[in-house]
Design goal:
The chain has eight helices and 13 strands. The chain is of the alpha/beta class. The protein has a domain of 179 residues: Spore Coat Polysaccharide Biosynthesis Protein SpsA, Chain A (Alpha-Beta Complex). A seven-stranded mixed beta sheet has the order 3-2-1-4-7-6-8, with helices on both faces. A two-stranded antiparallel ribbon has the order 5-9. The chain has a two-stranded antiparallel sheet with strand order 10-11. Strand 1, helix 1 and strand 2 form a beta-alpha-beta unit. The longest helix is centred in the N-terminal third of the chain and has 14 residues.
């Protein structure tokens, strides 16, 4: 079986949904490691009641490891952080507003990886639940953390994936995944909403990164878009160096400077 880590993003107003999701995963997969990125709120102090509640719940679970942000950070930042924290090549990224009741999901993921030799794919055409490998995420340059809120990071990645591989990331149907609140709940207060509950900042930034143009790539934008000089910047240029040299810490052999 391909080793995989389950990675979940969450925030204050989703506490009860988060608890239900963890409990449902644990019934099906008692030992799989779960990483949790707990987001803060925009321009608000840390809610200590929430902090104590979620950390108390997590501390009672085996192999559930949190990272807590003291203020609101981009969904891109949370996704990148979870993959970097993970000890496995493959990672299942989940929103916290899901019903998870497929006992064979990890087997399905293993079969997809082994049969199709792919390392980035979604389920049910949605980035609320997707699998990504460390290697391909590094190759693509990571999710763009200049999208400071949430929204557009998936369309941006689809555009870049198509630019690199000439095709869209595959998607596989798993009817047991149900999104309870997708598209209805803004993940932070004190953040100006624009369209489809996306913070206006992200919507405006993506229009600086891409513009309408013939011969471009549609991606998830629904029309031909070309990249501007804002372009892509690798968010973690030395992560590959760490992956290639981490074994040298226990027993030194040589330093691989290829990605230094």
């Amino acid at each position: 079986m391909t080793p995989i880590t389950i990675c979940i993003t969450t925030f204050k107003r989703r506490l009860e949904l988060f608890k239900k999701l963890i409990s449902s995963i644990r019934k099906l997969h008692p030992t799989v490691e779960i990483l949790v990125a707990i987001n803060g709120e925009n321009e608000e102090p840390v809610d200590n009641i929430y902090r104590k509640d979620i950390l108390s719940f997590i501390s009672a679970q085996d192999n559930v490891i949190p990272v807590m942000f003291t203020e609101f950070r981009a969904l891109s930042k949370l996704w990148n952080t979870l993959v970097i924290m993970s000890k496995t090549e493959y990672n299942l990224i989940l929103n916290d507003d899901l019903i998870f009741n497929n006992p064979n999901l990890l087997t399905i993921i293993d079969a997809v990886i082994q049969r199709y030799n792919i390392d980035l794919f979604t389920f049910n055409g949605s980035w609320s639940h997707f699998v990504v490998g460390k290697t391909i995420l590094d190759k693509l340059g990571y999710f763009d953390e200049r999208l400071l809120g949430h929204g557009e990071e998936d369309g941006d990645m689809v555009w870049r994936y198509f630019e690199m591989f000439g095709s869209y990331p595959p998607s596989f149907g798993v009817p047991e995944f149900q999104n309870l609140m997708e598209g209805y709940d803004i993940p932070t207060t004190n953040c100006e909403s624009h369209v489809h509950n996306k913070p206006r900042f992200n919507v405006e930034f993506i229009l600086k990164k891409y513009q309408d143009g013939d011969g471009g790539i549609s991606g998830m934008f629904g029309r031909s878009m070309v990249k501007t000089d804002v372009g892509n910047k690798s968010q973690y240029p030395y992560e590959k160096f760490w992956m290639e040299n981490k074994h040298n810490l226990k027993k030194f052999s040589e330093i691989n400077l290829k990605n230094a």
